[in-house]
Amino acid sequence: MEKNYHINTNCVQAGYSPKNGEPRVLPIVQSTTYKYESSEQMGRLFDLEENGYFYTRLQNPTNDAVAARITALEGGVAGMLTSSGQAANFYAVFNIASAGDHIVSSAAIYGGTFNLFSVTMKKLGIDFTFVRPDVSEEELNAAFRPNTKAVFAETLSNPSLDVLDIEKFARAAHAHGVPLIVDNTFPTPINCRPFQFGADIVTHSTTKYMDGHATSVGGAIIDSGNFDWTQNDKFPGLTTPDESYHGITYTERFGKGAYITKATAQLMRDLGSIPSPHNAFLLGLGLETLALRVQRHCENAQKVAEFLEAHEKVAWVDYPGLPSSRGYALAQKYMPHGTSGVISFGVKGGREAATRFMDHLELAAIVTHVADARTCVLHPASTTHRQLTDAQLEEAGVGPDLIRLSVGIEYVDDIISDLQQALEQA
User: What's the confidence (pLDDT) of residue 3?
Assistant: First the structure.
């Protein structure tokens, strides 16, 4: 797909261009294996000397087409799909870090990602230092160590809705010779293009707005192609021979595609967190309407946030589209057309009032999910973030009274009416 098309067009067209007589809709290639006429040709595929398909754990035409579409939306050079957003974040970091290495991460990230970093990857010997997203540049730079391999953050944090100062974090990362990896799940590339502000790698939980209908768990990793992995000796996995592929050096053989090629050929080969082609197909359908849905999500959320802010039973509201929000100025810089459909707020009366409010909702559903077409609600401190201590909750910006409201694309007056009647009973 031509790069000069508008992002809305790329939502529909990018990644798959059928030739004469081929299916207009991206086919589901539901096959684990692919036939070849000679052992020699298949051997070249296994040696990464030719492009092609030989086993779906590494590559599949349906998956690759959808990954190419997301890559086009983010403005990257290469991308891959994973079986979940968790897998995407794990691969993105583990692709360049191993035992004995260190990562600087924003503390305001999804609870599952915080647990992945602070517990599971710590067991693998990778150490993390967590910093507030509003950390000063001096404090941020002080968090780096000689063995730091990357900086990680969320462009719009889940669920605290901190808007990341991407340029500040990118400056610090690049000053120390490492890439900035950002999870862009909530804004999506419709509202935020992190590569334009210095980010190097973008991840997504495609389960959220990209799929948009709560049908398929998935993830994606996109490489900007801008980071020079050869500038120092921090990334031997990319710049020295890989003996598991007959001594291939990824940066020499694949250039700007080195990072994604290694993640696919090495990590996906060994760990296998692939999406099914059918799930990738459903994700592709969701992407076709992404621009339309995100616009409606943001329009509805703005009206709902304004309603909540004026309601006497609401203690506080945080939505970056509100001038009163702490993230408003940064949102105007990085996401001027909207942030997401997610609102954080608290009901007067704390946990008990929040529980009563949620239990009386009729249209909005209590679900362990966020960011699809239907309005839904969650109490993170007792669900997605329940593994965190009170101190960690505060550091992550998740208070005990915080309610995460994901505003859907229903008629906005119906959403507000449901919230109104539930608040009256809180």
Answer: 63
